[in-house]
What we know:
The chain is of the alpha+beta class. The protein has 8 helices and 25 strands. The protein has 4 domains: about 5-160, Alpha-Beta Plaits (2-Layer Sandwich); about 165-255, Alpha-Beta Complex (Glycinamide Ribonucleotide Synthetase, Chain A, domain 4); about 260-355 and about 405-420, CATH 2.40.50.1010; about 360-400, no CATH class. Helix content is about 20%, strand content about 30%. Strands 1, 2, 3, 4, 5, 6, 7, 8, 11, 12 and 25 form an 11-stranded mixed beta sheet that branches. The protein starts with a strand and ends with a strand. The structure holds zinc ion.
Amino acid sequence: MIPQQVMHIGLDDTDSTKGGCTTYLAALLVEKLEAFCVHFIDYPGLIRLNPNVPWKTRGNGALCLRFSFDERFEEEIKESAIALWEENSAIKEKGTDPGIVFLRSAKIPEELKAFSKKTEKSIVTLKEAMALIKKLKAEALGFNSCRGIIGALAAIGEPLEGDYTYELIAYRAKENWGSKRKVDEESIFEMDKQLQPFTFNNVDSETRRVIITPRGPDPILFGIRGESAETVKNAYELVKPLEPVERWVIFRSNQGTDAHLRRVDGLSKIEPYSSVIVKAVVSQNPRTIPVRHVIFALKDNSAEVDCAAYEPTGSIRKTARELIVGDCIEVYGAVHKATSSKPLTINLEKINIMELKPQTRKENPICPACKKRMKSMGKNQGFRCEKCGTKFPTSKKKEFTIPRGLKTGLYVTSTRSQRHLTKPLIRYGQEKNGKVKPEIIIEWHFP
Ligand code: ZN
């Protein structure tokens, strides 16, 4: 028997705005590692980290590969992983800070898991990451500011033991990178129809637009998100690409799980750069500011903050516009720090309406003879009919209840503007428990 060891390789921030994609590097690495006869013990992890860090690249996603291997190949495995990482990192691009981390360990240390949770929800420094790397005897390499090391380490420490989802990502042949993506749109709508509710965020229901194909110069042709590896694989077979697929891989992910959100029990406890769930009462009616953003204020006995539904959030903006002072709601969203022109603001991802305040309107009484609305004769002096002249000195204004254009319940931003981590409505009730690791299907990548 050859002694088998377990290794975890974490990768982050190898892409720039001009192209590349860390998931693609992971896909290449899967193929490369197979040459060393490794045995993958999990699907590659695609871990989305705190979407509010000021220096993030587009999606702030980090990757992790976990496998057992023949000890004799350890150095060769590391060397070829590093070579591939260097080759595929946009090291010359400003703002790209690639990192790669190796950890040899059968179990994920609890301390590392806690580090990862923190990286998903708040701000972590490189210093903290380096201290932990030293303590765990992990190895790390980085370029430029080396910030990618934080994400690479965090990806290793997220074994997805709570809720999780899958994404199958198909990649384009290199000669097509940067050109318009060619996929049969009808086949995507058909796949979405057939596999609902087990895949999600394929199309935007409001605009009837396909959203599984990105727009940038990156190598991704499309990515299908779903509840199981089998489902995303079936979905892949239903979609008709009209250009060559160079490779595809199924990732296991925290996407669509709300992993970034932290429930806080008071508005005074919310902090900039984090994402929160907080319950409070509407204290200022919504107002629309240029260009079609909706802002309202929320208050509890500890503080008052602004909430914003920006134009691209679509349907949630309509919900926000209907709120009135006194409504009791729970808001989900990213906290943006106060500036000279704006107070602390929560950018809304979801609104859970818990209690709607009855809306009333006061109106002058109607003349019993003429059926006309009467005029006030002054404060507490009653009303007078302008038509027949009759006075009613003791009459009072009448209060009417106006129907609210809202119902209690959960409202989520439109699919097209959802963040990678936002749990879409369709996933409610389908949450999984990752305590028991899922079996790996035979064909989870190509080639
Ligand atoms: Zn009258």
